[in-house]
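Hey,

The postdoc asked me to send both predictions to you directly instead of through the lab channel. I've kept everything plain text so nothing gets mangled by the mail client. Protein one:
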Amino acid sequence: PILYSYFRSSCSWRVRIALALKGISYDLVPVNLIKDGGQQFSAEFKALNPMQQVPALKIDGITLSQSLAIINYLEETHPHPRLLPQDPKKRAQVRMIADHIASGIQPLQNLGVLKQMGEKKTEWAQNCITSGFQALEQILQNTAGRYCVGDEVSMADLCLVPQVANAERFKVDMGPYPTITRINKALLELEAFKISHPSRQPDTPAELRA
């Protein structure tokens, strides 16, 4: 497998965690979203992913984009350890939380949107994350055990940790979100989350390395 990734991309980080949890080794090709006006806009990368976004994963003779689609494919082809619970209700909760973050928070504060916001980009990002986290905190109070849904790591957790990192980067006050904070802390102790962390990638700038 070849993963096209950017160290700081939260969507890429989700996929790196999934690959690490499932023990799938891969080659990483960095795509710098800022350098050269954004390497994702090159003709070469557009041919790979017409949406001109990371991540993209070449695997089993196909190229996949969209992090949740990639994670679902990995789940179906490498079912252990499981990232979607067997219980239909818990599985629905996992997908709900993953979608809440991947559709309801992250796209509103990603690089493309922030460029449009100009000087208000930090305020915009904070507002998007805060409103999303207010809802997420309430949801997690009903679903969480040790992690987002019960005591097993799931696709929801793969979305949560990168989004909390975004929140911290934009200096969001995490005080009102004790459940999110507790789960995030527990997840960051797991090896798969450590090795996939933005501070430990081949393309991480020296000053941001762990």
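Protein two:
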Amino acid sequence: VSTELSQGCARGCDLCSEFNGCLRCSPKLFILLERNDIRQIGICLPSCPLGYFGLRNTDMNKCIKCKIENCESCFSRNFCTKCKEGLYLHKGRCYVTCPEGYTAANGTMECSSPAQCEMSEWGPWGPCSKKRKLCGFKKGNEDRTRRILQAPSGDVSLCPATTEVRRCTVQKNQCPEGKRKKKEEQGKQDNGNRNQKDTKDTKSGTKKRKNKQRGATVPVTPTSPAQ
């Protein structure tokens, strides 16, 4: 550091040197150290520039560089106030997208508080069903629904589910079409049995007739004596 001077310094600087610029700023001003090759040049500013935050001390106020990743402007060492272009700000940090349950407020790049969706009351539970059928089973499912009355920024994907499903048990009852089908099958079976019996009786009668014909005697005509 070259010889310190208190006269001939830049405006707002109380103490300076020819080699390192300002060494102490006037009260209420912040000193910013800029690197120039191997030197650090001190300048005095009313507020810290982008990428720095102001740290006030009793002896001298300083501008400290932001250390948060992808941060363009910060409030303190660990709290960002503006992210680089294209990134979202959330609780002093920068993200590619807002965390789950949060959304960018009013087209800004700042994630708002947890998304609050206004939902209607749940409707009544529907009938117990299975594979869209209301009969022919014992255990199935029943569901109920509700509506989204208002979504933040109009994005309904941030709202909770509108359908709820639960298991249900009913007394097993046969479907009407199943009853008809069973009755038709029973009728076909009865007809089949009847036809089988009739066929059996027919075969039996035919066999009896054949046996009767085999046992019949043919009368023999006596031959007249030769004259």
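Summary for protein two, as requested: DSSP finds one helix and 15 strands in the chain.

Thanks,
C.
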